Amino acid sequence: MAFLGHGHGHGHGHGPALAASRRVRMLLAAALIPVGLAILIGLWLTWPGDPPRSKVDVGFGQRPVQGQVLAATSAPCTSGAAGAGQPKECISLNVLLTDGDSPGVMIQQVLPDEPSTPHFTAGDDIVLAYTGGNPSEAESYQIQDFQRGGSMLWLVALFAAAVLLLGRWRGLASLLALGLSFLVLAVYLFPAILTGASPVVVGVLAAGVIMFGVLYLTHGFSAQTSSAVLGTVLSLALIGVLGTAFSAATRLTGLDDDTAKLIGVLGHGIDARGLLLAGMVIGALGVLDDVTVTQTSAVWELRRANPELGIRALYTSALRIGRDHISSAVNTLALAYTGAALPILLIFSLSGQGFGTMVTTQDIAQEVVRTLVGSIGLVAAVPITTVIAALVARHDDIEPAE
After folding, report:
1. Which of 174, 244, 319, 378 reaches 20 to 30 Å from 293, CA-CA?
2. Would 76 be classed as within a structural domain?
3. pLDDT of 244-280, one tens digit each?
4. CATH number, domain with residue 107
5. Residue closest to 253 by CA, chosen among 285, 237, 280, 277
């Protein structure tokens, strides 16, 4: 079947071996095609309409205006900027507006000189929020952020060049797959959750689309890729089951500060625990793909190197490779989640609370559960994918290595 690729048709690919290969491919198709159809039906049923607009002003609706800092000096705070508990010293910025309704106009912005205030220097390109009123008056603007577009575009170009230089056509496929992942998140996942769909359902469906799209686009249509896809499906299912069970067992609500802010912006409730589970599945998918693809590649390379290896020998040899890989993958996942929660960890460290108290709080506990559930899924992915790959590769039409 074209969905699962074709054998090479050389050497040992004649007679009974070819028939066995066809049977294995039919079994893979029987396992994966229903999953693909279920995902397509789920997308059709949950495809979002127009996402709701915020019922409160959170600042995002204010029109951004670009500007450039001409001078930054210390200055006494005005009566409006200083008060009880406020610093006596402020920072005065002369800002040249470079777009908006009054390009070329210079305004002054006064900011309190606090540890949380960004450091501005002459020449900084910044973004201001136009709050309404006279576009030539300083009171109509608030400093919002730095301009980062140019630097980020250079970084994206450097990243793409590095991937293409090393990966060539495979690197181009990887970049297209990355674009597909972001497209699925932006076009489907975010709007579907905002329009009231179950975060768990749309998270699983989005993960399924990304999984099929990324793996087949990057690695091609073959029995080897299909083995990785099947291993990923089973491992994601395990992560979903464990995540649901232990989120309930540990009474995680998912109501951290960001989710509470989202509910305030939407003006209505949302399945916060479901949002947590959806993030758990999406977050584990990237590392999971890497593990399953590595295991299938190891099995196929071992089979090419020694076509006489049986299923047991293929499994045990590839599993040794998987043990080395999984230790680094689990560490990567744990450090990624720790890095994301670093400010929270520092705050709790300053509080003087014991480790047991700190680790069981809502914000920390959800990261611990997320990390451990994802890690269990990664560990399980190694034997699951390896046994699938060994069964398929042993009967696949593989041309031996030179």
Report:
1. 244
2. yes
3. 999 889 988 887 777 777 877 776 678 888 888 898 8
4. 2.40.50
5. 277
Mark whether 100 and 230 lie in a shared domain: no
Mean pLDDT of 176-191: 92
The interaxial angle of helices 272-305 and 311-340, nearest 10 deg, is 140
What's the one-letter identity of residue 136?
S
Average pLDDT, the chain: 83
Domain span holding position 136: 63-146
- 89-97 sheet: strands from edge to edge: 106-112, 89-97, 63-76, 125-130, 141-146
Please give the DSSP secondary-structure letter assigned to residue 67. Answer: E
**Cβ contacts of residue 259 below 8 Å, gap of 6+?**
270, 272, 275
Looking at the structure, tell me whether residues 227 and 239 fall in a common domain: yes
Report phi then psi at 254, rounded to 5.
80, 0
178: which 2 tokens? 């990355």
Q: Tens digits of per-residue pLDDT, 299-309?
A: 999 998 888 88
Residue 399: which of 228, 222, 232 has the closest Cα? 222
